[in-house]
Amino acid sequence: MPRTAIVLLPFVGLQMASMRGSIDLSSATLVVAWSVGFVWLAVVWMAYLKTREPTGPFWQRIDVSWRVVLIVILWVLGVSSLLRGAPFTAKWIAVKLLVYAALLMVGLYLRVSIRGWRLGFIRLRQGESGPDIDALFSDGRRRAKYAAFVFWALIVTMKRLRYHAAVLK
Questions:
Q1: Deepest of 20, 77, 84, 163, by most Cβ within 10 A of its Cβ?
Q2: Reported pTM
């Protein structure tokens, strides 16, 4: 369930950072954060479940818009924390924010890169074949191939950052 994991990742991280004392958040703030997380998760699943319905594009626009806003917020918080030590004093948390923002950006790039696959599968189901159909898949694969590796490298980086927190103080 990658679509669920990538959405809940920042909220689990926020909860864990609060529990270990890396950031000072009230219970009310955590409740609000988790509520936002569950609303976003619902939007992500609606976008997925309604893909082939008339409301699909509506849910997808909300999801993409949310991701873009979140990317900007994460970059601002991460850079501010690295440069000024606020709002997060732990540099490893600031770096995690930046890595997560990069994950979201690569994820959006992957979506755009393989957009033609949907059309390709529709046309294959209609019995079409040939170089035009092949190009829909090969072009998307060519664009997405390295981005997928970057995506997984960022996931590994995200996990490893906690182990190197002492270096990033």
A1: 77
A2: 0.83
Nearest Cα neighbor of 45 from 106, 2, 102, 105 is 2
Query: Is 169 inside a domain boundary?
Result: no
Report the C-alpha dihedral over residues 53, 54, 58, 64, rounded to 10 degrees. Answer: 50
Residue with tokens 């955590």: 30
Q: Which residues contact 28 (CB under 8 A, 6 or more apart)?
A: none
**22: containing domain:** 2-163
- Number of Cβ within a 10 Å radius of residue 99: 20
The residue behind tokens 């979201």 is 104
Look at the alpha carbons of 82, 63, 13, 39 in this order and tell me if their dihedral is positive or negative. Answer: positive
Mean pLDDT value across residues 12-30: 88
pLDDT digits (tens, 9 = 90+) for 84-111: 988 888 888 899 999 999 999 999 999 8
What is the count of structural domains for the chain?
Answer: 1
